[in-house]
Structures are given as C-alpha cells and as structure tokens.
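LAB NOTEBOOK - FOLDING QUEUE
OPERATOR: T.R.
BATCH SIZE: 2
PURPOSE: Compare the predicted structure-token outputs for two unrelated chains run back to back under identical settings.
PRIORITY: normal
REVIEWER: second-year student, initials M.K.

ITEM 1
FIELD SEQUENCE / FIELD STRUCTURE:
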Amino acid sequence: MSIISTTNTIIGEPEVVEDSATAETSAAWKQLKEAAIALRPLQIKDGSIPEGVDASTGSATHDVAAQHVAAIISGIRALAPAFPHDAAYLEAAIVDFQRWVDGGFGEPDFLDSLMQFQPQQNRIDGIRHLVVFPMYTQNGSTDRLVEALIVETIWPEFVAELEAGDYSNKLFVSLRLVDFTPGYDTNSAVLFPETIAMREIPSFTWGAIFQDREAARYRRVVRAASEITNLELPERAAAMLDDQQMTEKTFVMWDMIHDRTHMRGDLPFDPFMIKQRMPFFLYSLEEMRCDMTAFRESVKIERAFDARIAAGETLTEAEQEMHDYAHLVQYAVIFDRIFRFAITGTRVRNYDAVGGQLLFAWLHQHGVLHWTDTALAFDWDNVPDAVVALGDAIDDLYWHSIDRPKIAHWLAAYELVRGTLTPHPASQWARGLSDEILAGAPRGYTDAVMDDEFPLSMFFETLNKKMRPVIESTVGIRGTDD
C-alpha cells in the first residue's frame, strides 16, 4: 500500500480494484464513502465550504476538507480500473474535485465530469458504475452535498427489444442501488443530471431511475395494503410480491414507457419538464397521463400477443416476456398508484397523491373497483378499459387545450379532476374564483389553490392510518431488504 500526504494527515492509498462485482466490499470504496460522509457536515446548502474551524478537530475547515477530498480522489483512482467504461468520467471527476480544492471550496462545479458521464451509452444488463458528485437528491436532501454511489444497470433483453422498436427512449437508464451515501438513505429513487452542482445547464442526455428501490417499496406496501383491505390478489399479481427481480423488470418496462411520454402526444405546451409555476393538480394530470399511457400500451402489447398466440404462433423468449410483463405492468400501475402514491408524503400540494386518489375514485365510480363489506375487489375483466378511459379523458383535455389560453386550460383541468374527486369545502376554485382573480395574473390562480385542495376520502384516511408505519419503513429500502 502506497502512502500519499495531505496538509495535516497521512492517507493510505488503497489497492487497485479490478472487478466491479467486488467494489462495494473493497478498502477503496470504504475509504471513498467514509470521506464523502465526513465532508458533508462541512458543506452548506449550495455545496460550498465556508472558511472556519472544524468543531470536531479544531483544524481549519478547508484543511480538513482537503484531506477528505484527497481520500475521495485516491479512492476513485483505486476503483477506476473496475469501471473501464467510465474512465473518462472518473478522470474528469478527479480534476473537478482538485479544482474545487484549489479554488477554495466555493460553490462546486462538476459540469466537465458530468458531461463525461454517459450511462445511457452502456445499457448492458449487470454493468456497474461508480458515481461521485456534489448534488441534491429528489425526495431526499435539497442540499448539494457530495454523494457517492455504486450502481448496477438493469436491462433485460425484452426491454432492450421494446426500446429498439416502438418504444425508443435513448435517455432512459434503469439502475439498481448497490451501495450509497446518506443522500440515498431516503425516499429518493432517481439519479438526474440536473441535480448536480454545475456552472451552467447543458442539454441533458440521460435520466436514471432505481427500479430496485421502486420494486422493493411496491412489494412491501402492496403486501400490507392487500392484507389490510382483504384484497384477494390475482395469482400473477401475488407472484410479484415474492419475486424482487420480476417486480424490477415490471418497473423497468413501466418507467421506460412513462418516461418517453412526457414529450410525446398532443401537448398544449411542454407540460412537465420545464420548471413553471402552476396549480399542482396540473402535475398530477401530467404524471397520470404518462402512467395511463404506459397502462394503455401494456394492454395493447398484451392483446397483440394474445392474438398471435390464438392464431397458433410461437413467440420468442423475448416476445413471451413482453407479453407477460405487459400484464404485470397493469397491476403495478394500479396498485402502486392507489396503495403507495395516494398516501405517501405530506398533504401539502402533493400531486402524486392526488393522482393515486384520482385513479382509485375513477375506478370506483366506473364500477370496476368495489369496497364492500370491508373488502376491496376489482372486476379485472373490465378494469383495462376503465383505466384506458381515464387516459383518454386526460388526452382529450390536452388536445382541446392546444387552442386554449393557459388559464383556461387550468380551469378545464380542475373541472376534470373535480368531476371525480371532491374538493375541500373551503376551496375558492370549487366555489368559483372571484372576478379579481379571473381577471388577474396567473399567479393569483395558483395562490388560490389550497395546499390540500382534494383531501383524502374516508377510505384513504383510514388506510393512511393503518399503512403509515409500512410507508415509513420503506425509506432507504434496497432490493435485498425483503
């Protein structure tokens, strides 16, 4: 083991790691991870490190931070041979970290290394990446702290064939969490480039979702919710709860189709990707539009293969998986939306929750979901058409709104939601906005929306109380936890 010197300490440089399959148990990863964790308390919200004295050591904060960064750099160097496909990125990350030190730990700028990190170019099942950036984590921390992860790609053959065919999505990356720093010991299940500290915003070329976390949360939550609601799960839906890999593949297919939908269809504007201020239920409808499209396309795929099977054709192994997982996606969309999304998070402008509430109420009011004698049941033969009908209603709203002013679109969207969900009795929107608001700027419309514009129904209030410990137990969950 060689020794490198820093300002006030001697850091052992770990042995080179050659195999990414053992990286998370290596001394190099342990050193890198511990250094990243130790660096975090020195950082403030924008990721910079102010000058001062470190309370734990009595040394200058910049001297202490430089030692931690030296340990991170030596860890990256030792781990780099195990990730040859990321060589350009890891070398650039070392440069960015050293520049941060040399610049006095101002607001970090990792644009150069970010531009070299291109995981979408290596969508190979099982390939791993070492990821180290100052960043915030969605549904985790809003502070740009140094995070370090080892991740593994999930890319089954049938998904690769779907993506190469009618469901092209060159930006989509599906990952599994192997090990991580505390920013991911949270609800965060995404890795997005826009969260990384950088001097300017480039055109992003990828976005990653941790399907293992989504699958593990789904399995734990749906298992508990089905027991609480006395729901008799269909055989294939029940099988997902006992099979993490099956559920992961289901979520990969769902998320790939969902993700590509954000920029496809008859859209009145770019509905979600740009950061615009608008009533939160608009985000509910956009997320539901994408989920309903994933559901609709899964029904389409399943029925197309059913017709081929009925005609006596023999499917390839990948085609059989497309058929089987298309059916599982339908269960996943329904159960994740109504059992997890509807009751996860606060009631402050929670657009995901409203989407789950909307789907539940829509299915109930269309007679395919029943809550009778304290038992939940579905009319599964008619569920697909009912779900597709909700997607059609949202698509129709979007199509008509191409010709509407923005605020008229907002009002029409509200009417769509309130046609199924009951607004809060004190809602200004439900009573009818005043002429002053109607004639004023869009901000007035948004300000008039209540934090909990569409409160939980009595069904969900009770379910929420019973499910709260289960929901909370999924924070930081890994695919290996169940």
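ITEM 2
FIELD SEQUENCE / FIELD STRUCTURE:
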Amino acid sequence: MRNVFLFVRRYFNFLIFIIMQAVALYMLFHYNRFHEAAFMGVAGEVTGKISKQYNTVEYYFQLQKTNALLVEENQKLRNLLKDDFLPADTTTKIVVDSIKVDSLEQYRRYLYFPAKVINNSVTSQTNYLTISRGTNQGITKDMAVVSPAGVVGTVVNVSPNMATVMSLLHRQSRISASLLKTGETGSVEWDGKNPQLLTFRNIPKSAQAKKGDTVVTSRYSTFPPGQPIGVIVEIVSQAGSNFYLMNIKPSTNFFNIQFVYAVKNLQKEEQDALEKATRKQE
C-alpha cells in the first residue's frame, strides 16, 4: 500500500493530466455528433479487425475439437444408419413377375447435408443462424438442422448458396419431443430469457422423469426421431395442473457452433399430400 501512495505522489500531475484528457475526449465525442460519428467509425473498423483476427485464432484452436466431434458424429451415423430407413411391410408376401432389384433406396427417409455456420446470434429473443448451403446445394425451406451434439433449428429462408435457420433459441420455435427412457411426448420451446435453458412442457405427472434424463425429438417431429435436444435440470410441479414443466439444458452449445447438418425428409411431400387429402374428406 505504501508503494501505491508513493507512486501516486510521484506521478500525481501526470495522472491528473490523463484523467482530464479522458474527460475532455469523452465530452468531445459524446456531445458532438460529427466527432462521435468519426470516432464510432474508426472504433468499429478497429474492433472489426480485432474480432476477425480473434475469430481466426479461435477457429484454429477449435479445429481439433471440431474434428473430434465430426469423427464422433460420423461414427454415430454409421452405427445408426438403419434409423434413416423405413423398413418395408413384410407381413404380406408379394410375388413379382419381373427381374428383382434392390428396392432398399426407395425406403430411405433422411439425407444429411453438411454445412458450415457463417453467422449466429444468441443474445436476441429471435435468434438465427446462417449456413453456407442453399438451393444450389440441395437445401429447401423447413428442413431440420442438427449438430454433432443435437438439435439446432429449422431452415426458414434459402438463397442459391446460403440459408437462414431459426434457432432453438427463438421465441417461435416449437419442437415435438419425448423422454428418451419412457417415451412420453411433449413440446420444447424457449422463453426468450436464458440461452442455456429450454422449456419442456405437457409431460404428465404420471411420467417417471427425473433430473439428468435425456430429452430427444419424437417421431411426430420434423426432425429424425431420437436426436438429442437436452438434459433435464429442473422439474416444476405446477399446482392445479396435471403436467410437469421442465427446464432442460440444450445438448448443442449455441455459443460455439461451427458445423451443422441440414436434414432432408425424403417422404415429407408424400406425407403432407396424404394428410392434406384426408383433411379435405372431412
């Protein structure tokens, strides 16, 4: 402490000069629009260059982790390829009077398109991602988007070479989800407050749910079934309601997401057409 007082005493005039200079600059830039605009322009340019360099360095050091996640994802997909196919009904014997061909491909349900995330937001109540794939690369509106860790969002707009994705961290996001262990189905949404917590609704109190249980996409979702959404961290028993309200931690780290997969449901058009025709018959 004594050394601090000696330092202040020795450089007292210089410190006063620095403080007064800072106050003068603040008043100049704060109360003069021309100088404020000039300062903001220079500051924005400098900040942009620093952020760009920081992002480059950060991206380099994240490569090892990203590659590990990609390897893990590829292994996971290879082990679960059967989940991307809808098996044929084998209860009836079909006799074909022509050359037999491999008909497995017609039952494929999902195709995965890898894409790099080129923009992302987490601080708004309506957060979006931009990915480096568009219509020229097979992306269409309403396609599901997942990461190596779990669910990311849904494609809402597409250009020839890019697409925007409505993040799970969006007030209008709704996903049909279920408990991995017991299968009860509800919906996952976001309240627009904490980007590290999602809300899982409409699970009956008869369900045997507890903290640490995994929540995944259901078979009624636009996502492939069984995709991780998050882990339950809190269960709220609402008075006067037969349902739980659960807070879950997202499986995907939206603060550091770099690569995703856009998922195309090859049977979506057929399903939509069938359901539309059925509604018309009512």
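REVIEWER COMMENT (ITEM 2): Residues 147 and 260 are 4 Å apart (CA to CA).
FOLLOW-UP: none requested
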